[in-house]
Predict the structure.
Amino acid sequence: MEKSGKIENTVYQHSIDINDLIIKKESIQTALGYKAGSAPDYVIKEIDHAFSEFNSINDIRGGFRIVYENPLSLKENGFYLSDVFFHTGAIIASNLTESDCVAFFLVTAGEVISKKVKEYNQSHNYMRAYIYDTVGSEIAECACDFIQSMIEKKVKTSGFSITNRYSPGYCGWDVREQHKLFSFFPDNFCHITLTKSALMIPIKSVSGIIGFGKKAVKRNYGCALCTMTSCYKRRKSG
Amino acid sequence: MTELLERLALCVEMGKIDKATPYPPELAGQDGADELTKQALDKGISPDDILHKACVIGMHSIGEKFQRNEVFVPQLLIAAKAMTCVMYHLKPFFVSGQIKTKGTFVIGTVSGDLHDIGKNIVCMVVEGAGFKVIDLGIDVPESAFLDAIHGNEGCIVGLSALLTTTMVNMEQTVNAIKKQYPQTKVIIGGAPVTGDFAQQIGADGYSHGPQGAVEFLNKAVV
Ligand code: B12
């Protein structure tokens, strides 16, 4: 058990049961572009079909690493951790001001779902393939929620709260910085690998950080400050 | 004849593949794209008319609705499926040269990138607009684009990327193409790509969706 105010340097890796994720059919409809209740019947049926096959999706994984350093060496454009500078940009850095430290996380919805997408595409069942692809993305997002709540529970025992999660490729943080993030995990962690061009395999994977500290707070994403007009977080937040 | 082609265009647009397809409900139990294409060929309607006066019209209509956010990708994809069904019957006429496509579109996801779902949608819509599509797949090196251009004189090239890291590989590919084949037109697209970026790297066009690609291609071949 950690003493209050101190957390051991830890790496956790979990196999996640799909039934432990809160995946909503409505979120899939929204991700497909439909407003509540406006999706055609056949789309709703396809979503139901995908959900009926959930039990075969058995390779969802997620994990995190906490490298405890207090205080976090925060700069205007990023932070240092174990001598590595994470150039997150000002938006994310400003959301870490109350954090004492960060947790790195990786999650994946696995290969099974992507294999299904491929098979359905090959048999010319394009719509089903696309809906499965969207379901795969949603599983990855929900697995992030799951790992986020694990991190939250973990640090709470020491009296800390957490920030929102931030990923390279968002909020002005260069996607190539994933290489630094991966350097904090053992090879093949959660069966995820990173290519030279900073692409994670399996495709339905997410990497990121979550800050924590005595006074850390979850703030809305700072879309008003960001220059990426095509970003989907912006669209999500209005 | 026009009535049959109009019905076929509607089936393509609505994704009514065959008689058994339950959607759209108002066409339940009626012939779909499969049956209507066969009937049209039996009646001696020219394959070229079936393509350009039915299939292309149906795909154009759904593509426009997609662009206006009136329908979304699933609806576009069932239309594409109905279109594939028409194309299946028309295949021999492409081979024999009886059907003339508007031109050839060579497309691929640039090197370092493995995403294909967006590119595949573009392929289907462009094919449905009456073009021959050569899909080079994912993680396509410059050399493969150059080979394809060499083998398909006058083709237009499309590049896709989903990450900012791989988006930069578009620049190298565009440079290589323009150096060897300055006349070849290149259009780029994908989530992080913008019109400004296209201009900056010397691509001829950008579109955030498939319909814009069709408009670009239609202009490029006149
Ligand atoms: C769903 C999603 C995910 C899912 C699934 C990802 C997947 N690849 O399957 C999950 C949650 C797993 C995910 C993860 C990540 N994502 Co993501 N994701 C998205 C999202 C919301 C939608 C992507 C999608 O599937 N769109 C649907 C398809 C059909 O659209 P499309 O591929 O863009 O294709 C259309 C057009 O672009 C166009 N088009 C495509 N190609 C071409 C070609 C031509 C010639 C033309 C004319 C048009 C064209 O037409 C297509 C049809 O309309 C986008 C944001 C967005 N709104 O686009 C971010 C986005 C792609 N992701 C992004 C990022 C950063 C990531 C991560 C790196 C985050 C992280 N650190 O974990 C990871 C990377 C994953 C990996 N494997 O490496 C960035 C990429 C930009 C960048 N900064 O590099 C985006 C753009 C979000 C943003 N910041 O705005 N992501």
